[in-house]
Amino acid sequence: MVSALTPSAELLPHPRHPAKRGLLGFRRDHSRAATSKVRVTMLSQQNPGGESAGTPPLYLGIDFGTSGARYALIDEHGAIHSEGKRAYCAPVGDAAGWASSWRAALFQLLADVPPAHRPSVSSISIDGTSATALIVDSETGELLGGPFLYNEGFPDALPAVESVAPANHTVCSPTSTLCKLVSWWAASGGAAAGAAVLMHQSDWLLWLLHGRPGGVSDYNSALKVGYDPELGAYPGWLTSQPYSRMLPAAVRPPGAPVAALRDDVRSQYGFSEDCVVCAGTTDSIAAFLAARRSEPGTAVTSLGSTLAIKLVSRVHVADARFGVYSHRLDDVWLVGGASNTGGAVLRQLFTDDQLAALSEHIDPAVPSPLDYYPLPKKGERFPVSDPDMMPRLQPRPGSDAEYLHGILESIARIEAKGYSLLKELGATAVEEVFTAGGGAQNDRWTAIRERVLGVASGRPSRLRRPMELHC
Q: Model pTM?
């Protein structure tokens, strides 16, 4: 059970609909020359210069991934003043154990922020994994259902969702947040839904900090529960359903002020009375924002436990048949999808030391003849939406280096297929690819991806030296 929280904060003023420009702090660089080449670039956080006189306001961002959480404390220029990370408590155990681990990590990270910096923290926001959700009693704080993880499918709810949603809508996938909500609703008979509210992972963690009842989400996290970012509201086909009363009562632009930090949290950790809790977003959106680029054709591949791609497009594209969806990004769209392939597969087969050592024996200029579809378990989301797809990791050669080469190249092919699919569906063609996540640190893999993406696009590509991402 999650302990009850006494709401102690008032909702801050906000616009009903997001602004058309500048919502996420982007400014278009129109002086950048157009290029016909695809460039693969590793994201890095650069310090643009020293601090101004006095104590500048600082901004605390916390990223909740699949295996741990991390924070970065930045100033208005993006310079990092402090950072840290925490692994989730092990073993996690049942579903409720995930919530306890997230909560523990959140408050551990708050305690890790240097005390000297805490009075200068102006705002706090959190990102979480897309489509990870919980059902919470908004009156008592009790956890009623879940957490339901991002890759957890509920095919039992899919027929009911497909019967009300438009054809090929983003929610028409077993792993969508709406399928998770409908499945829980059906299992409970709606009996426990009086004070129940659905919260996405970032919603719930932020709620622990502001305590505002009723649920507050952001329009990136709410996309897979059916929120319409073009309309700026839940659509009628969704609000007419009996379970719609469980939807978050307010949906804000990412980064919009929600409420003041709870008094007890503020006093315990020494944050300012003016510290504000802001709406969050998803982890892959946060990775994209760290690139600080919003020109159409710019893309970010997140190589973490899973592989997620995001592409800035002038055109809204969504098709549940392929696991493709579009997030709003000011006046353009962030089109993409998330595959279940990625680092989780590698960790099942190799240790970090083995990955580093074996990678040294790979020649990235030579294509691997091995054709795999690396998945940690049954089920794929993108670029093919197939809950029954099985991992394909055979045949295994005698050389572990050759085996790793085949896996890394196969993941790169999935990435290339994803970008090719987005173009086929009408999205703006990719011109530049940034890379985030742990996979960005493997030089050989980056060189493989550069070659495969170049072949997939039919154009040469160029690579800069990989550097660590801070987001």
A: 0.73
